[in-house]
Amino acid sequence: MESSTDFQEPVTPSSMPEYNEIIKTPMDLSKVRSKLEGKENISYSTEDFVADIRLIFKNCATFHKEDTEMSSVGANLESYFEEQLKLLYPDRTFTDVKAEEPAPEPEPAPAAPSPCS
């Protein structure tokens, strides 16, 4: 699909400097391809594949404003992917992408001991 071109390679800091500040788990189709081809030396299940594709769309929706062209492209591709997934696996349910855990709050510095009177 021609509309998938923006998802085929990682987002570069020069094209979107703030991307890695907002998206903590980047994913793109080149990473998915690498995993499918066995270049990552990991076991890559159908569930992993679906989770990675859904993560691409989740990242798109998180980063881009709802009314932008990129957000619309991501939503349309996501709908198409989900339709095809149901056709391929009509009796199977895949878990949703897990929300990213917020960074832990830093612990407050211990209070200085008060002088004895």
UniProtKB/TrEMBL annotation:
Its main location: nucleus. It is found in: Nucleus. It comes from the Eukaryota. The keyword Nucleus applies. It holds the Pfam family Bromodomain. Residues 96-117 are annotated as: Disordered. Keywords: Bromodomain, Nucleus. One of its GO terms (cellular component) is chromatin. Residues 105-117 have a biased composition (Pro residues). Residues 1-71 form the Bromo domain. This is Tripartite motif containing 24.
